[in-house]
Design brief:
The chain is built from 12 helices and 8 strands. By secondary structure, it is of the alpha/beta class. The protein has 2 domains: 6-215, Phosphoenolpyruvate-binding domains (TIM Barrel, Alpha-Beta Barrel); 222-264 and 273-298, no CATH class. Bound molecules: 3-methyl-2-oxobutanoic acid and sodium ion.
Length: 312
């Protein structure tokens, strides 16, 4: 597959082919998107919770984003890779925002950036677009503002707030943004923005009328889930474990990773990696404890005369 470019993404949206987007935080997660034909890979600031154990995205630093983005770009030959501007890296001044984006691009090699905000980020979106950096503003629910919003709440449900999102979307397009990320807004608002404006829309919790969809990779894989695959549709897919193995996995005493929050409506778990991982680690611990690992085929031999020579 050739590298996904802005032109590829525009062709996909013009031909009504949904664009697939997944987050990645390191080399192995980047390789999953690479090998499964995912179109875009996002180094999301969800890194803060799902990889570094913080309870909010506001704690992540630009340096940490860069460190992880470097590993992601090493594992991404094909997808269009973009990274979140973390909280605190662009609000102080236009100049600081531009400088930080240039630093992020130079050091990590990502193709573009995503920025949470409303009309106040338009000067930054315009400047970055003018100097040739692809920008995707993130509208609707903005997790970096969860505290001031009093939680992770659906946005754009009133006529007034839907209009504000629509208007901001239009201004972002005029400022040169190549795309929009629309999070947790009514599906018909997201579809109207997609239909009316000549800009690529990627949705999460925004219905299926957008040009593409994004999910957090750990939600898709069920990395932190204590359950087997959830959701009526997913139940039909192949289970990775036998009931017996599931039972053993559920008896584990490994520490449970912090789940960032109760799953929002828009999450669908497509796998049960958390269960599979615990099962594997439990088997390893048991095998070491009962000395069944390593067995002779997993150990190195020595010729008998060499051994005898060694002993004398
Ligand atoms: O940080 C993130 O993972 C994101 C996506 C959920 C859109 O911003
Ligand atoms: Na984010």
């Amino acid at each position: 597959r050739p590298k996904v470019t802005l032109s590829t993404l525009r062709k996909l949206s013009k031909s009504d082919t949904p664009i697939t987007v997944l987050t990645a935080y390191d080399y192995p997660t980047a390789l999953l998107s690479e090998s499964c034909g995912v179109d875009m890979t996002l180094v999301g600031d969800s890194l803060s919770q799902v990889c570094l154990g913080h309870d909010s995205t506001t704690q992540i630093t630009l340096e940490e984003i860069i460190h992880h983005a470097k590993a992601v770009t090493r594992g991404s030959k094909t997808p269009f890779v973009f990274a979140d501007l973390p909280f605190g890296s662009f609000e102080v001044s236009l100049e600081e925002g531009v400088r930080n984006v240039i630093k992020l691009i130079k050091e990590s090699g990502v193709d573009g950036v995503k920025i949470e905000g409303g009309v106040e980020i338009i000067p930054l979106v315009r400047k970055l677009s003018e100097i040739g950096i692809p920008v995707m503003p993130h509208l609707g629910l903005q997790p970096q503002r969860a505290t001031s919003l009093s939680g992770y709440l659906v946005q754009g449900r009133t006529a007034q707030s839907a209009y504000e999102i629509y208007q901001t979307a239009s201004e972002m397009k005029d400022a040169g943004a190549f795309g929009l990320l629309l999070e947790a807004i009514p599906h018909n608002v997201a579809k109207k923005i997609t239909d009316d404006l000549d800009i690529i829309t990627i949705g999460i919790g925004a219905g299926n009328g957008t040009n593409g969809q994004v999910l957090v990779i750990t939600d898709v894989l069920g990395t932190y889930s204590q359950e087997d695959i959830v959701g009526d549709d997913a139940k039909e897919s192949t289970l990775v474990e036998t009931p017996n193995q599931l039972q053993q996995a559920s008896e584990l005493t490994l520490p449970t990773p912090k789940k960032p929050s109760a799953s929002p409506r828009f999450v669908r778990q497509f796998g049960s990696i958390g269960m599979a991982s615990k099962y594997a680690i439990n088997q390893y611990v048991q095998a070491v404890k009962d000395r069944s690992f390593p067995d002779t085929k997993e150990s190195y031999n020595m010729k008998k005369d060499e051994w005898d020579g060694f002993l004398t």
